[in-house]
Amino acid sequence: MELNKSEGILKSSHENSEMKVTIWGARGSFPSPLVPGVVQERIRSNIKRFVQQAHGDLKNETDFFSKLARHHSGGYGGNTPCLEVSAGSNSVIIDGGSGIRPLGYELLKGPCGQGQGEVHIIFTHFHWDHIIGLLFFTPIFIPGNRIHVYAVQPELEQVFRMLFQKPFFPVPLEKLGSRIEYHRLEPRVPFELGGMQITPYQLDHPDPCWGFKFEKNGRAFSHCVDTECTRFTPAELGPDLPLYRGLDLMIFDAQYTLVETIEKVDWGHATASLGIDMAMREGTKRVVFMHHDPASSDEKIAAAESQAQRYYQHQLARADLAEGKVSEVQWAFGYDGMVLEV
Ligand SMILES: [Zn+2]
Ligand SMILES: [Zn+2]
To answer: Which ligand is closest in space to the CA of residue 25?
Structure first.
């Protein structure tokens, strides 16, 4: 069955987009690169498929490779959470997982490469997978750059002191080069950054973790990652309900399969079916799932995506009976390098 992951999910449902979201790290908990053996096996099995399905006809090569399932080609990626949200020439980074390392190289092509850059990073929380990439975020080492960091939690500066210190890392905080400026965010109070309005709302995670709602000219996108979403109904969510309401795009935690969420109660992560239900109830147009479990192979993530598709079809059929009280949702599993227009 063809999954509900058409490339259409990448585009805004409006003619022009207001924001652009790039996923630099879609993996949760720990960086998990593709190992050489897996890559070799993929190449071998794809050559076999090419010979069998396209009869080795090189004219069909592009067509053949564009139709390969994600788990047979590039996979979902192994870098831990880092997103870039751009509005025009401004951008805001969410989290400093290992995905921020390649983003740093990209930023070096602009003012950051000349020590004239200004970078804004907001943090959901400080679990290792969301800060580990800061150690290799090159713009931070270039004198003249200003790195603004933001969090609701009061420990922000302490986290940077802990990361950049001997004997764990050779360069102490004082010798980084760039100037780091710390900003404390107020829970549920909107602030302006890069021409966007951003509001922190609390998620459901073992250590306090904050989701962010981005709004610009009537478009809205929310980042809801590292959450078990134990509060689900509007009454349970209370003051945090706006995080899930009125969205063009929601990025949601799908670390586990449905069965695993039952085995891993209180581990702080959710599953795709929960995000689908939330989006159908709230009328969210598009959902992208990430924070894939590091223990999951690309094949297992693809199987979870198929499971979510069956769940979605079931919920849609049930919704018909309930006279359209919920809406259809376009959704897909995210991957490193995915770019979404909002
Ligand atoms: Zn995480
Ligand atoms: Zn976490």
So the answer is: 1
Could you tell me which residues are beta bridge partners of residue 213? 199, 222
Separation of CA 76 and ligand 1 centre (Å): 16
In what helix (H) or strand (E) does residue 320 lie, and over which residues does it extend?
helix 298-321
Give distance in angstroms: CA of 55 to centre of ligand 2. Answer: 47
| Distance (Å) from CA 94 to ligand 2 centroid | 13
From the CA of 127, which ligand is nearest?
2
Q: Which ligand is nearest to the CA of 294?
A: 1
Instruction: Please state, in angstroms and rounded to a whole number, the distance separating the CA atoms of residues 72 and 44.
Output: 11
Question: 164-223: per-residue pLDDT in tens?
Answer: 999 999 999 999 999 999 999 999 999 999 999 999 999 999 999 999 999 999 999 999
Domain ranges of the chain: 18-34+75-341, 35-74
Assess whether pLDDT exceeds 60 at residue 4: no
pLDDT digits (tens, 9 = 90+) for 21-46: 999 999 999 999 999 999 999 999 99
**CATH top class, domain 18-34+75-341:** alpha beta
Structure tokens at 156: 């922000």
